[in-house]
Specification:
The complex is a heterodimer of chains A (364) and B (181). Chain A is of the alpha+beta class. Chain A has one domain: Beta Barrel (Catalase HpII,  Chain A, domain 1), CATH 2.40.180. Chain A contains 9 helices and 12 strands. The longest helix of chain A has 26 residues. Chain A is globular, with a radius of gyration of 24 Å. Chain B has 5 helices and 2 strands. Chain B starts with 8 loop residues before the first helix and ends in a 6-residue tail after the last helix. The chains are: A alpha+beta (364), B mainly alpha (181).
Chain lengths: 364, 181
């Protein structure tokens, strides 16, 4: 060995030097991965909280687990062309793949009109990057950031004794988050419609539209039905009656929605989805969505992808709303977990989405 | 004993530039993949182009390396250590190339658009859309990244072992410093 002897203490110091750099890096790595910060809301922690709140897993989406695929097109009105250069606001007949779902994490849950309903869309213009959007029917989101979301989902933890969330924990969440009260009340008093076809779906989060010259316009949007709105039935139907009604409706005639953009007024909170916007904000009818076909998730085109709200085309960028970041990370994690798992059949099978005749037989 | 000649300036620049980039990428990766915080999207948007830049540099570096033999290791280095040095260098090259390819491939298989810069410049998919492959590659990306990190730690330990314990000029061959410690 060429090592020059420097005495035992000098050599110990040198060995310490050799070990210190890798050890410091390893420690830094543990910190960056969240292992040294038990209070950090990590992707794994959120997935655990969803699981404990009753999410079924096993190959299904960790939330919005029961759904159907739909396809159709979007036709821009041109009215939003001046505020965004996105192809979707300029073109006609942009192909769309979508998904209607119930917000619950259980793929075999019984349909209930009070459960959150959702519409997710993937717009695929021919010569421009795609856009994915996922929307819910409540008008506002009673969550402000990742910590609120983590607190909320842990308050929904299923009590094994009752099979339901512990009401005391649910109440405690409300009490500990007074800033969410206005949003929660607004949602509690929302109009509940008869089904998927006559519902309005909201972006909830805010985005910035970017114009040709770089102008930025903060917006939220809603998909507003062309179909006549009817109130929800008081008597409940069968397990899948909301989906069966949607399938029958689409087979009967294409369903349409207007994409209505709401432009943020001077007092509207862009970075906090729990804040309700002013009633007199300017709106823009950006175009019409037409959905003309429905398929089961089993083999359907909406299963092998996730409607990550940060998959955005040129002309639309994320606002600083922290929930967008949370959703993007959570959807990717849910998508990678479920794609690696063995999955049972969906509640809404290919047989159910195909034949309107078989569908009406089941109703009787 | 004759002092070991240094790596060429180009080899050294590439080595140190990539060392900084790869260490940054490992930390960005592990941080963002556990994060749901306000910088998540910005980090993912940085992770992709930085990873692709590493891929391009690694291919250039490998081409250069195959044409320019590195300085020899000291004669008195035990054969096992020589083998370990050689093997670990081959593995480092393999991972510098495989990891970004797996990252790119997994997003392709997941059906994600893969923005390289802003949201207008996209990378083309390199694998067909297949969710099972996406999930599998996503795990492989983690396994390979952790392997690379472990290897880099051992590599740094070995470099410091050469520099502080053996003081045989190997560390200087990469730092470019002429006089031994
Ligand atoms: C705030 C916390 C939220 C969490 C933790 C969360 C979590 C999730 C997860 C894990 C999925 C499954 C993703 C997949 O596997 O592909 C999902 C789906 C979905 N989320 Fe969220 N989400 C949140 C907020 C929202 C908001 C604010 C909206 C609407 C504006 C929304 C709309 C949707 C829709 C529509 C789907 C279903 C997409 C589909 O049909 O594939 N979520 N969510
Ligand atoms: C030398 C290059 C690269 C290194 C060292 C690297 C490192 C990492 C690490 C350490 C993680 C975290 C793994 C985990 O904790 O599960 C990660 C995640 C990830 N990487 Fe890479 N990566 C590289 C290249 C790429 C490339 C080129 C892409 C895409 C084009 C990419 C896309 C991703 C994605 C999408 C994730 C997951 C993010 C999430 O789960 O939220 N990586 N990477
Ligand atoms: C991410 C970090 C790093 C990577 C991926 C990396 C990679 C490599 C590779 C592939 C070689 C072989 C060069 C060749 O034969 O073509 C090498 C050599 C070398 N590296 Fe690194 N390195 C990293 C960080 C470091 C650090 C931090 C140090 C110093 C503390 C260092 C010191 C050396 C030395 C001294 C050599 C020459 C070894 C020899 O001649 O056999 N490296 N490195």
């Amino acid at each position: 060995m060429a090592a020059k002897s420097t005495g035992p203490s000098g050599s110990a110091l040198r060995w310490l030097g050799v070990a210190a750099a890798p050890a410091a890096l390893a420690l830094g790595f543990l910190w960056a991965g969240g292992w040294l910060s038990p209070n950090r809301v990590t992707q794994n922690r959120l997935m655990g909280e969803l699981h404990d709140a009753g999410s079924y897993g096993q190959g299904f989406r960790r939330a919005h687990s029961k759904g159907v695929c739909v396809t159709g097109r979007f036709d821009a009105s041109g009215a939003a062309a001046s505020v965004s250069k996105a192809a979707i606001f300029h073109e006609q007949s942009v192909p769309v793949v979508g998904r209607f779902a119930l917000g619950a994490g259980q793929p075999y849950v019984t349909d209930n009109p009070a459960t959150v309903r959702s519409m997710a869309l993937r717009f695929m213009p021919k010569d421009a990057p795609e856009w994915r959007a996922a929307m819910n029917n409540p008008p506002v989101l009673p969550l402000r950031d990742a910590q609120d979301a983590s607190d909320f989902f842990s308050s929904q933890r299923i009590d094994p004794a009752t099979g339901k969330p512990d009401p005391a924990r649910v109440k405690a969440f409300g009490a500990a988050h007074p800033w969410l009260q206005a949003a929660a009340e607004k949602n509690a008093h929302r109009v509940i419609t008869s089904g998927f076809a006559d519902d309005t779906y909201h972006s909830l989060d805010s985005f910035l539209l970017v114009g040709e010259t770089g102008t930025k316009t903060a917006v939220r949007w809603a998909m507003v039905p062309v179909q006549l709105v009817a109130p929800a039935d008081t008597a409940a139907g069968g397990r899948d009656y909301l989906f069966q009604r949607l399938i029958a409706d689409i087979h009967d005639h294409p369903l349409q929605w207007h994409m209505v953009l709401t432009v943020a007024g001077p007092h509207d909170a862009v970075n906090d989805p729990s804040q309700i916007w002013a009633q007199d904000d300017r709106t823009i009818d950006a175009g019409t969505l037409t959905l003309s076909a429905v398929e089961s998730e089993d083999g359907g085109p909406c299963t092998g992808l996730t409607f990550d709200p940060l998959v955005l085309p040129p002309g639309i960028v994320a606002s600083a709303d922290p929930i967008l970041q949370l959703r993007s990370g959570a959807y990717m994690r849910s998508f990678s977990l479920r794609s690696g798992e063995k999955r049972g059949p969906s509640a809404i099978t290919p047989a159910m989405t195909q034949a309107p005749a078989a569908e009406s037989e089941k109703k009787s | 004993m004759k002092p070991i000649p240094a790596f060429s300036p180009l080899a050294r620049v590439l080595h140190w530039l990539m060392a900084v980039m790869i260490l940054s990428m490992l930390f960005i990766g592990i941080f963002m993949a556990s994060s749901l915080g306000p910088s998540y999207h910005r980090l993912v948007s940085l992770h992709r182009p930085l990873g692709i830049a590493i891929l391009v540099l690694a291919l250039l570096r490998l081409t250069y390396r195959l044409r320019h033999a590195p300085p020899p290791l000291p004669n008195d280095l035990p054969a096992v250590l020589k083998l370990a040095a050689k093997g670990s260098h081959i593995l480092l090259y393999a991972l510098m190339i495989a990891l970004p390819l797996v990252g790119w491939g997994m997003l392709s298989a997941g059906g994600y658009p893969i923005p390289l810069w802003g949201n207008a410049v996209l990378l083309p998919p390199i694998l067909p859309h297949n969710p099972a492959v996406w999930s599998w590659l996503r795990s492989i990306h983690t396994v390979l990244a952790f392997t690379l990190f472990g290897l880099v730690l051992a590599h740094i330990g070995a470099a410091l072992f050469h520099g502080l314990i053996r003081r045989d000029g190997v560390l200087q061959s990469m730092t470019g410093r002429k006089t031994p410690l």
